[in-house]
Design goal:
Rubrerythrin, domain 2, two-stranded antiparallel sheet, 1 helix, 4 strands, elongated
Amino acid sequence: MTIIFTYTCPFCGQENHIPSPFSPGLLHCVSCMKAFPIIPVDERTIRYIHLMLDNGRAAADADFI
């Protein structure tokens, strides 16, 4: 399971998707190619979500399986 975060480019407004950035850095916009800083996410919170959802298996529909 991967948690995707969306960052909006401050230059062109394009939404950019990135999987769980744990450290600060620069993200290059896929539309205008300009770089802008991103705020990292809390790694412990992401680990907690993975644990509580059993790495995505808890979100599966039991009737489908």
